[in-house]
Inverse folding.
């Protein structure tokens, strides 16, 4: 999941905006609302999403909406387990290249169209089509025919078929024993015939889905999105009548959310850092404080195929020059933890603490030695890009000053609006480094290693624009080979060993520069609502909340 648009921190008395980022339940056949009182309107605020249509939904704001409008084969629980949704069974061939899914019969989209195998094939093909220009299409990249569809030489995914109305057969171009885990992403949602091609503005703004909620009206851009319960939902119905989502100015969203929670306007909120101590003291005692270490990570993204960060030693020098401890203490007021890995601590089975030797402690002498060896001479110009209006200015300023002081570099802060920042990362000839964050789309290390570091995730178009999420253009055949071996390994323990090996290869190359892990803090109105939790995507679990 693409990293957060914003972050909120404090330096001394200077208030800067706080971070905004980048499912659960059993497979039940009844349509009852289960235990808990039904009814009521739940309210919260978010920043403007990139998309709520599954063909391009990609960060937590958009996923919040899409995940509640659509139900796929499987879902991730908040603690990272994968459970069935519409899938009733799965089988995989011994070679890991053919998957067969049976889906629950008799469920419908909210316009009455059937949710069957063809609806899934339709949705997946729509995402992968060249004309869709989807930022999340790579999640389907392992399916036979994906490359031809992306190239525009085919109109169907040849690896997909429907042996019968409620069976989906998937043939992969290479073994992948975790393909079922990937189907938890909203890109794998089914869509009705009325969805049409991806660039269908009417559907983009008012998607017709098969999830626990449906749209009430259309997306009012930069203003609001309203969801209402889908009373014809094919699984366990939601209890809330309505979810009102206010779309807030991203530059002041944290303050607006916190003020809205205090006034009773919102039932879920982030808060500005200066208020954290007081907010925790007040709301923790009332049972309205949520604090969780999540699967998100924050990095500097170095461009590895062009410019001053092309040499691995130059990247290592930059990493050694950063005093993460000082920034966490002085800028973040101790509210983050230092990262020394590419993979987050949440992946306990593969976590290799202190794998990034350059991240453990600032070492000015090693930084200078490696800079000289890597071609980073004093006075070398390097650009560090970040998005405006998100509260990143203060920590970026701290990094810039450290690089100037330690290495004598001529560092330029390159501030852009969020969409322009993403475009700059993708642009042909990109150089320097960028503020970058990532949260898991689905619970496997593959979701960090493949999209961010595999050469197939660079996916340049004819003009040289990067259309995948390997925005750093990292390309190491040894890494790719190990990751492919991991995907082809059926035994999970053996697969995890390979994931560790792949991470070490990338870390030795300093393919990414880890900065800090992510701790998420929320306020939740437990006086009015029961069972409020943070889901896998760091959003409220709307489909499970009930009135008191």
């Amino acid at each position: 999941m693409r990293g957060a648009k914003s972050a909120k921190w404090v330096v001394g008395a200077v208030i800067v905006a706080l971070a905004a980022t980048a499912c659960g339940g059993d497979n039940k056949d009844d349509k009852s609302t289960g235990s808990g009182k039904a009814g009521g309107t739940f309210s919260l605020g978010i920043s403007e999403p990139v998309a709520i249509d599954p063909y391009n939904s990609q960060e937590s704001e958009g996923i919040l909406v899409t995940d509640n409008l659509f139900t796929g084969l499987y879902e991730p629980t908040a603690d990272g387990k994968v459970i069935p949704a519409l899938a009733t069974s799965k089988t995989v061939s011994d070679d890991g290249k053919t998957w067969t899914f049976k889906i629950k019969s008799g469920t419908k989209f909210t316009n009455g169209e059937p949710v069957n195998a063809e609806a899934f094939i339709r949705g997946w093909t729509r995402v992968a089509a060249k004309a869709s220009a989807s930022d999340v299409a790579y999640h389907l990249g392992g399916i036979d025919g994906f490359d031809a569809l992306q190239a525009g030489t085919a109109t169907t995914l040849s690896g997909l078929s429907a042996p019968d109305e409620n069976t989906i057969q998937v043939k992969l171009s290479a073994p992948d024993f975790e393909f079922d885990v990937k189907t938890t992403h909203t890109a794998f949602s089914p869509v009705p015939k009325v969805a049409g091609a991806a660039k269908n503005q009417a559907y983009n703004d008012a998607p017709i889905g098969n999830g626990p909620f449906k749209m009430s009206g259309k997306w009012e851009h930069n203003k609001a999105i309203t969801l209402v319960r889908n009373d014809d939902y094919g699984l366990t119905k939601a209890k809330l009548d309505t979810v009102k989502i206010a779309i807030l100015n991203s530059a002041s969203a944290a303050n607006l959310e916190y003020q809205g929670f205090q006034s009773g306007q919102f039932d879920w909120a982030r808060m500005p850092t200066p208020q954290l101590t007081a907010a925790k003291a007040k709301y923790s005692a009332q049972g309205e404080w949520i604090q969780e270490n999540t699967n998100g990570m924050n990095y500097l993204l170095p461009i590895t195929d062009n410019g001053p960060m092309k040499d691995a030693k130059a990247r290592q020098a930059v990493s050694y020059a950063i005093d993460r401890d000082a920034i966490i203490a002085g800028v973040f007021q101790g509210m983050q933890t230092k990262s020394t890995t590419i993979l987050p601590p949440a992946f306990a089975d593969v976590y290799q603490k202190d794998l990034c030797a350059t991240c453990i402690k600032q070492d000015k002498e090693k930084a200078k030695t490696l800079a000289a060896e890597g071609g980073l001479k004093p006075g070398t110009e390097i650009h560090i890009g970040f998005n405006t209006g998100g509260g990143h200015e203060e920590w970026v300023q701290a990094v810039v000053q450290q690089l100037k002081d330690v290495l004598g570099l001529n560092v330029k802060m390159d501030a852009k609006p969020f969409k322009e920042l993403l475009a700059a990362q993708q642009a042909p000839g990109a150089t320097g480094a960028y503020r970058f964050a990532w949260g898991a789309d689905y619970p496997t290390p593959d979701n960090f290693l493949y999209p961010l570091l595999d050469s197939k995730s660079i996916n340049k178009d004819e003009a040289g624009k990067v259309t995948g999420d390997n925005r750093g253009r990292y390309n190491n055949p040894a890494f790719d080979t190990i990751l492919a071996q991991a995907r082809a390994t059926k035994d999970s323990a053996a697969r995890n060993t390979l994931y560790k090996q792949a991470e070490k290869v990338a870390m030795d190359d300093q393919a990414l520069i880890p900065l800090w892990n992510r701790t998420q803090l929320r306020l939740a109105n437990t006086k009015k609502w029961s069972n409020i939790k943070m889901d896998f995507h760091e959003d409220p679990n709307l489909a499970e909340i009930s009135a008191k």
